[in-house]
Design goal:
It comes from Streptomyces termitum. One of its GO terms (molecular function) is NADP binding. By secondary structure, this protein is of the alpha/beta class. It contains 12 helices and 8 strands. The protein folds into 2 domains: 156 residues, 3-Layer(aba) Sandwich (Rossmann fold); 120 residues, N-(1-d-carboxylethyl)-l-norvaline Dehydrogenase, domain 2 (Orthogonal Bundle), CATH 1.10.1040.10. Helix 2 links the parallel strand 2 and strand 3.
């Protein structure tokens, strides 16, 4: 007996989720603002609802995957949510998730928020390693754990409905730092006779080799001792920054992505202890 699922939103992500539930044999009711997008899924066995209200009424488990928080508001305004288990996979801020949780509870629904750590081609492909961060109503999560785990993996991060969005945004923020670093690296080699395709594996391997340093950062943040296990101390790294800036200048590359981080390193050195790791930058940001 597979849990029946209602899904609102058949964009790129919603459609991928729908296919995964259908393939696993879950009865599925779908609704999309533009009805044409539901056509192909109906042929694959989905029930289509004419309105969002009808789709919500069909099943206890209601999954929403729309563009943004405003589209969730617009879609569910006036819809009876009494007794529903509402799972919102729409990307938003932690504050939007908390507000949405209170809003759902006031309408008699249970609420679970999700942050999708996958792109559509990873959905329904367990080897791809995609998952969703969930936060909010733990009972709802436990009750529907199996159905929720069908499209991608599940990682529950706490009762605070905002935590899924916070984890999602934190990971993606770190990713943008990596993208920024890679953009600078490619810019450095651009004018030279260096094949970016030969350079890329060197870059990828280096990023992978450096990634576990986050565990040391975490240990230092927990203990409060930023010299613990230090490998390359702050004074040495700040002394090295002119090399990076001069190299950028020599290659005709703007240092606008690198400079803000170097400025924080220098500020921390000026205020603190050169024997520390780079962890003090976290304090400067989170002050
Ligand atoms: P799409 O742009 O492909 O689809 C957007 C969906 O939202 C469509 O179903 C659209 O309906 C609907 N929609 C937009 N505005 C409204 C509205 N005012 N009222 C009702 N429905 C509305 O986006 P995705 O499917 O890719 O993304 C959906 C969510 O998943 C987003 O929050 C996104 O951040 C998140 N996500 C997406 C990832 C991705 O790689 N695609 C990765 C991780 C998260 P219509 O067809 O009528 O336009």
């Amino acid at each position: 007996e597979k849990t029946p699922v209602t899904l609102l939103g058949l964009g790129a992500m919603g459609t991928a989720l729908a296919r995964a539930w259908l393939a696993a044999g879950h009865p599925l009711t779908v609704w999309n603002r533009t009805p044409a997008r539901a056509g192909a899924l109906a042929a694959e066995g989905a029930r289509t609802a004419a309105t969002a209200a009808e789709a919500v009424a069909a099943n206890r488990l209601v999954v929403v995957c729309l563009l943004d928080d405003a589209s969730v508001e617009e879609t569910l305004a006036g819809v009876d949510l009494t007794g529903r288990d509402l799972v919102n996979l729409t990307t938003g801020t932690p504050e939007q998730a908390r507000t949405r949780a209170a809003w759902a509870r006031a309408r008699g629904a249970r609420y679970l928020d999700g942050g999708i750590m996958a792109v559509p081609p990873m959905v329904g492909v367990p080897e791809a390693g995609g998952y969703v961060f969930y936060s909010g109503d733990r009972e709802l999560f436990e009750r529907h754990r199996e159905a929720l785990a069908v499209p991608v993996g599940t990682t529950y991060v706490g009762e605070d409905a905002g935590f899924a969005a916070l984890h999602d945004v934190a990971l993606l923020s770190a990713m943008y730092g990596m993208f920024a670093g890679a953009a600078h690296a490619f810019a450095l080699i651009r004018r030279e006779d260096i094949d970016p395709v030969s350079f890329a594996p060197l870059l990828a391997d280096w990023l992978v080799a450096m990634a576990p340093s986050v565990h040391r950062t975490a240990d230092q943040l927990r203990s409060g001792d930023y010299t613990e296990g230090v490998v390359s101390h702050l004074a040495m790294q700040v002394a090295g920054t002119p090399t990076f800036l001069a190299t950028a200048e020599g290659q005709g590359v703007s240092a606008e992505l690198l400079s803000p981080y170097f400025a924080l390193m220098r500020r921390r050195l000026a205020e603190g202890d050169g024997a520390e790791d780079l962890t003090g930058v976290v304090d400067l940001l989170a002050r």
